[in-house]
Design goal:
Immunoglobulin-like; 3-stranded antiparallel β-sheet; alpha+beta
């Protein structure tokens, strides 16, 4: 036997051993690629749905103005934006002192009906002098 023939025989033995040791995959490559593609498309579709659904909250509020009228009172104007004005809203307003400690808190109920954008005015009685007011959140009632 020549060296080339012996090498060819060894290569065939090695190939046979590898074939027995590593059998072919149970799922073919095109099936795996198709499943991964479907998964990626599904994930992108979910991402687009989630972004469009949660991009605009049902209700949002911000303090559009406030006036400290005395050491124990503050007048707050809260601008509330409701996606559905036919439902009432409940917003929480917080007055804070210069050290950011809360000195007053009140819930404001925005009645159902009316325009989508509502300005609500409230006077808060504080424990000590307030320096700012913040909207702490709103829920649809």
């Amino acid at each position: 036997m020549t060296a080339a023939a012996a090498r060819s025989s060894d290569d065939a033995d090695v190939a046979e051993r590898l074939r027995r040791r590593y059998p072919p995959p149970r799922v073919s490559r095109p099936v795996i690629i198709t499943l991964v593609a479907v998964g990626v498309v599904g994930a992108i579709a979910w991402l687009i749905w989630a972004a469009s659904s949660y991009a605009t909250p049902a209700i949002s509020a911000q303090v559009s103005g406030y006036t400290v009228t005395s050491n124990t009172t503050i007048d707050v104007t809260l601008t509330v934006d409701r996606r559905d004005p036919t439902r009432p809203a409940i917003c929480r307003v917080l007055a804070q002192a210069s050290d950011f400690q809360p000195v007053a808190e009140q819930q404001i109920v925005i009645a159902a009906g009316g325009p989508r954008l509502v300005d609500a005015r409230v006077t808060l009685t504080t424990l000590r002098r307030a320096t700012t007011a913040v909207a702490k959140g709103c829920t649809v009632g």
